[in-house]
Amino acid sequence: MEFQDEMRYTKDIIDQELDNLFKDQKGYQDRIFESIRYSLLSGGKRLRPILMLKVCQMFCDNYLKFIPYALAIEMIHTYSLIHDDLPAMDNDDFRRGKLTNHKVFGEALAILAGDGLLNLAFETMSNFALKDSETIEEYRRHLWAINEIAKFSGVFGMIGGQVVDLLSNEIHMDRDVLKFMYECKTSALIQACTVSGAILGGGSELDVERMKKFGLYLGLAYQIRDDILDIHEDKEIDKVTYLTFNELDKAKEEINRLSNKAIEILNYYDSNKVNFLKALTHKLINRTY
Amino acid sequence: MEFQDEMRYTKDIIDQELDNLFKDQKGYQDRIFESIRYSLLSGGKRLRPILMLKVCQMFCDNYLKFIPYALAIEMIHTYSLIHDDLPAMDNDDFRRGKLTNHKVFGEALAILAGDGLLNLAFETMSNFALKDSETIEEYRRHLWAINEIAKFSGVFGMIGGQVVDLLSNEIHMDRDVLKFMYECKTSALIQACTVSGAILGGGSELDVERMKKFGLYLGLAYQIRDDILDIHEDKEIDKVTYLTFNELDKAKEEINRLSNKAIEILNYYDSNKVNFLKALTHKLINRTY
To answer: Which residue ranges form the domains of chain A, and what is each CATH number?
Structure first.
């Protein structure tokens, strides 16, 4: 399949499965189902779940059965956006061209919808893990994947990065703090995808370590590309970014360096196994939106 | 051991373990460690983790090794309180005689501290589950317990109840809606304790079912007792409670009926196994604070 077709094929499956969540679900609490569906189905690119499934496919053929994990990662990503947009946080009225969750459902329900999504991620993974496991090895890999996803999304991962971002006006931001923030805020959830994909697909310890590095480099390159796109859009000029400490040329060089390191890791594997991921890497770091 | 001693012994262990969390932890994100510790160590009675461990003890002797689950349940309870207190929710300035989390750390950090605690609960459980499991049966019970805790604390459990509570001015509250709200908002997290305790301790499917009912009755009785205590304190008069639909005498009768049903379940077991839980049930439903 061509890259674009493969991308669309995977995205369609994910979109379909997300759309099934709480569909026609009734209950006294159904306003939260609406609120969750509103944000979950508001046109995300599904990069993270696609990445998770495609890394998984490197190591096994029946990778699509692990879709509950892909959904869980999208749930974690979505909850973090809902909470980020809140008035007490970034106070954003729009996301992806639509009103943010709290603008439609109110702040209180947006907080609960975020909590509900984070909780649902672990409910979804543990539910599937229980049903899917028969051997010790299967049980172990499921628990290992759940644990890695929890670590990458927690206070030593994504949430830790959000805290530093939040306090960036109070903390003296130097290159080290910025690097920490990018590793946590952006790379960590990407690593949750690449690492859980490798674990569930049956990769070795070495494979998992490699995919952890792949996610790290990809996430950092992605974030610096974001910084460059942001200056073109003239937004958030007062924010400390990679470009606070470096010229534009240096930033572009760094993106190339990081993406080369990401590609180097993929080169350990058969090229037919990693063609898609190489194309995705190029697409993400050269994107213009 | 006498009931009070046994209570204090268990509470001290839990308090000690909670105090070890993030102790002297350094990192650029350490303000969230402070914020989490502030709420986690602000004088909770630890009823839920004590209940979890004591139900576990009914079914096994080395119940104390499952303390990571007790901590995880307290983390879930604490995150729900931090988010409940937020200005957009109940807007409370004080809890347990201390300033609420957002009053001390600001709203944004309180939101992230809540998120961090919920995430940490699953990180803690999956971490321990991985280390503790050797046999298929051990793996299965860990995943089963994690899944039940996730379900009871999610949108079909505790969060679902909070949504109904939040919308109680918009929803027409009748007896059925109130019952649903109490089952979710209060009983569900109590059931997370009793069910996970039975699963981890090695109880049978029947034991788990019984403990699920025990938690349901205990939680409902606890909530109606709360309603009675609230009228004595003259607070939240405009809120719909059990007393909106029933006289005080009827409420007391209902508490007795529910606690008798809870005790009936405990009577299936050897009395020396359930003495503590019987005493705890009596204490909770007769409490005056």
So the answer is: 3-285 (1.10.600.10)
